[in-house]
Automatic annotation (TrEMBL), chains A, B:
<dbReference type="InterPro" id="IPR017850">
    <property type="entry name" value="Alkaline_phosphatase_core_sf"/>
</dbReference>
<keyword id="KW-0479">Metal-binding</keyword>
<keyword id="KW-0378">Hydrolase</keyword>
<dbReference type="InterPro" id="IPR000917">
    <property type="entry name" value="Sulfatase_N"/>
</dbReference>
<dbReference type="GO" id="GO:0004065">
    <property type="term" value="F:arylsulfatase activity"/>
</dbReference>
<dbReference type="GO" id="GO:0046872">
    <property type="term" value="F:metal ion binding"/>
</dbReference>
<protein>
    <submittedName>
        <fullName>Arylsulfatase</fullName>
        <ecNumber>3.1.6.1</ecNumber>
    </submittedName>
</protein>
<feature type="domain" description="Sulfatase N-terminal">
    <location>
        <begin position="5"/>
        <end position="383"/>
    </location>
</feature>
<dbReference type="GO" id="GO:0005737">
    <property type="term" value="C:cytoplasm"/>
</dbReference>
<dbReference type="Pfam" id="PF00884">
    <property type="entry name" value="Sulfatase"/>
</dbReference>
Length: 522, 522
């Protein structure tokens, strides 16, 4: 019997792996997450399947790669045909509660085509990506009716039709003017909301209230913070918790700009990269970013303390991860997308309370993990493994419960990019059909295949910071070839035969004679 | 203005390209189809996207490759998420009428999941693959309620609960015993039904009746014959129309059996291949197969004569093709599947009545054509091109209307195999997830990539009969590599972002500021 009664799946938005102290940050202390890692296990090499919110999250929520779930960028709806974690749980009579962000774009056209009433129970479930919304809050837009946050702010005296814009992401400059966190030059200022009224505090409260309401009843909760994603406005005192000198050194050099990959060069022309190419921007934003992370850790400490006191640490599987990282000026880039480890590698901590997981408790595991592993892992923890003809990830219990050396595990991870919606596509003169790229990352290599553009290759052993693109190095042609072969193999194994289970295939094998069909008899 | 008011899409089942006289058969005369080719154009190099009924047809009906539509074998339901030709036409207020076979397996699980009432208009349309069924008749099973054929037979005196089994595919042997066409040894005998009561005659009558009922009203009809597919029982006089010496020579040699590809070798162990490996079987079946084709041609002549008299030849786009070929003992194989031209190449005749098509009238075109081209071609003929984010085929009008030499066209075609349901998978000890293969065929090469099995390669210039597998020839490693690269490129360009149109992507490009999101501003 599994000891797991509840699941708490925590996601931070745009959080780089190297920005937790348990992952080696020398100045930014994250004691709550470090303690969680000590009680569970920490994956040193966890990677997302896309370096941007929407497709990455859809891989976390469906257990399938972007090429399969089809929601390849933030504005692409998740097809009604895709089955999410929430729907798997609903099939077991459980709910997947949501506090925070999902980035689900409902497939309205698909629902209309199939005459699914958006107001019906099914329609609501599909439009919400399978979640039961305690409080959906996607952040970086003025929150809508689905979140209680604007009303909460107004109750606490932030008198505005749009308190998020006027208070949460606003500050007051030296001249007493209210200025916006959309302009990154202002994020050294404290947010105009008091810390207990910030987004991170509010969403932690939602999770705490939910756990209290559930009492001893089992639950599965996705607690999905919108921070440290931009706008990078931190409430006091976190806005000044770190100085610019307490941030990680910039990972960039001038050689990167010479003969750069044409699509990377196009990304560098986008506004966020131009802004982050200045040291001034980096020295203002990075301390605020770190402050937001420290704040998050403090609230997680509050949450974990409650869980401890309520006995929930003994029967709750906790996963903490992020949807992708943030360049913050590394590689002369801002924001996310593309395929550097800065963006692709995320923290991934799992605290499995079961006795079997004692095998790895407190350890840092080097096995490669991907976003698609989340659904299989949660379903396995709850005792009802998902369908193997749909799920493309693996159960992390295989690692957490002590892997037999003979059990194979993956030795590379895959990620995808659809830049159809970005200025970089326009700059490259491409169509929405050929603005795509795929990455294969092994222990040693980062390889990127671009449609109708040159390849990229980085030797992560010789060049861990990914400065030197060997995509056109003739000495590395055979390496690139071998990685293209991996990509081909992976693409071909994609799970696209979705309408019949493997068990049904087994049953139907050679079934023609039972069906009265006798072809081939002489 | 297009001259096309109606579309007649005729499919034969399991008809090899080389079994029409206009495609070079020296003994089997097919004057009606030859005349159609003379009035239209004939594609010399038309290929299916899968060498088996279900997936091939789903590519014809959706305009998408099997890896995308997901119905990878006969028993795999077509996902409710896939849009068929019938649904595209329904969106224009037109119906796609069906007389005959579709091999659609309804996605009952998908409909149940999405609470689509199978009895509703939508449910019926989806379950029928978008067709309005005049008479659905999939053949090679006892027909169900959806076809009027059993009742028709009983009305004509074939007194039986199952007149198909007892009469249509039965014969009477020299000892007066009723014997079954399931046993191929019996197909030299005439069917127990009179020719006018045969499947081919019946279905032609359905089409004729439909055209007459429509009067001058526009229509789109899929006339889909179940012949010359097994059981190979032909009615008199067609059962003896050809002698064994009037059949094509067997395309096989003993070298093929030495060191054969392991999956091909496994197919050769299946019953149909064992049967067809004997000359006796070949000499009995091939004449009957040819008789069934000649019968089909005679009925098409009847149909085309009516159309001529009714003025329909002037305003009807006619397409004639097949879902795949039939080995009939070639390569020591029976039935279909795998990737030889015998099975992959099909007849493909298009009669476009519009003036623009005069450019190619009566010609044999060498450009490569695939099943996925059907939907774009029909939609273009009717004046409402389909969505380019879903359709993977091309409009054949580009060729039929006289291609400018500067207009690019494809130089290879792709086909797919899922042998999960076959004995060959069991013989190879594989799972339902890795019993797959893909073929790339160019002018010169036939390349096959198998999951976890050796490659195959044939040099079609030096070895047009595909006897010598160069899959392990070290001299051809670079050729195989180049073809794997083509396969990778094709797989990556697959249209899997199905929930948003390219036009919507264009509109949403750079739209964040309009949505109130200002990331990246300093």
């Amino acid at each position: 019997m599994s000891a797991v009664q509840n699941v708490l799946f925590i996601m931070a938005d745009q959080l780089r792996a190297d920005h937790l102290s348990c992952y080696g940050h020398p100045y930014l202390q994250t004691p709550s997450l470090d303690a969680l890692a000590a009680r569970g296990a920490r994956f040193e090499r966890a990677f997302v399947n896309s370096g941007v919110c929407g497709p990455s999250r859809m891989s976390y929520y469906t257990g399938r790669y972007p090429s399969r779930h089809g929601a390849t960028w933030n504005r692409v709806p998740l097809s009604v045909n895709e089955i999410t974690l929430g729907e798997y749980l609903a099939g077991q009579g459980r709910e997947l509660a949501l506090a925070g962000k999902t980035h689900i774009i409902p497939d309205k056209a698909g629902m209309e085509r199939l005459a699914i009433d958006g107001a019906s129970e099914l329609g609501v479930l599909l439009a919400r990506g399978g979640f039961t919304e305690l409080d959906r809050y996607d952040g970086h837009h003025t929150p809508g009716e689905e979140s209680g946050y604007p009303a909460f702010l107004r109750r606490h005296g932030y008198d505005s039709a749009d308190p998020w814009t006027d208070y949460v992401i606003a500050g007051v400059d030296a001249d007493g003017r209210v200025v916006s966190g959309w302009n990154m030059r202002n994020v050294h200022l404290p947010s105009r909301v008091a810390e207990p009224h910030s987004e991170t505090a509010y969403m932690t409260d939602q999770a705490l209230d939910f756990m209290k309401r559930r009492g001893g009843q089992p639950w599965v909760l996705h607690l999905s913070y919108v921070k440290p994603h931009w706008p990078y406005m931190a409430p006091a005192p976190y806005h000044q918790r770190y100085t610019a000198d307490q941030c990680l050194p910039l990972r960039r050099n001038h050689e990167e700009l010479a003969d750069a990959h044409p699509v990377v060069a196009a990304y560098r022309q986008q506004e966020e990269s131009v802004s982050f190419s200045s040291d001034e921007c980096v020295r203002v934003v990075r301390p605020a970013y770190q402050g937001l992370i420290r704040q998050l850790d403090d609230h997680l400490g509050r949450l974990f303390d409650y869980m401890e006191s309520a006995g929930l640490m003994k029967n709750t599987l906790i996963v903490f991860t992020a949807d992708h990282g943030d360049f913050l000026g590394d590689h002369w880039l801002g924001e996310k997308e593309l395929f550097y480890d800065t963006v692709q590698r995320v923290p991934f901590i799992v605290m499995d309370p079961s006795v079997e997981a004692d095998a790895t408790r407190g350890k840092a595991l080097a096995d490669m993990v991907e976003s698609v592993d989340l659904v299989p892992t949660v379903l396995r923890a709850l005792g009802t493994p998902g369908p193997c003809h749909l799920l493309e990830g693996r159960e992390l219990q295989t690692l957490l419960h002590g892997r037999d050396g003979a059990t194979p595990w993956r030795d590379c991870v895959f990620s995808e990019l659809d830049y159809s919606f970005r200025q970089a596509r326009i700059l490259r003169g491409k169509t929405p059909q050929n603005a795509r790229a795929w990455s294969v990352r092994t222990d040693r290599w980062r390889y990127v295949y671009w449609l109708d553009e040159p390849e990229q290759l980085f030797d992560l052993h010789a060049d861990p910071d990914e400065y030197q693109d060997l995509g056109r190095s003739s000495a590395h042609a055979s390496t690139r070839l071998a990685l293209r072969e991996r990509l081909l193999d992976w693409m071909l194994r994609g799970k696209r035969r979705t309408t019949i289970s493997d068990e049904a295939v087994e049953k139907a094998t050679n079934a023609h004679k039972r069906a009265g069909v006798f072809f081939g008899q002489w």
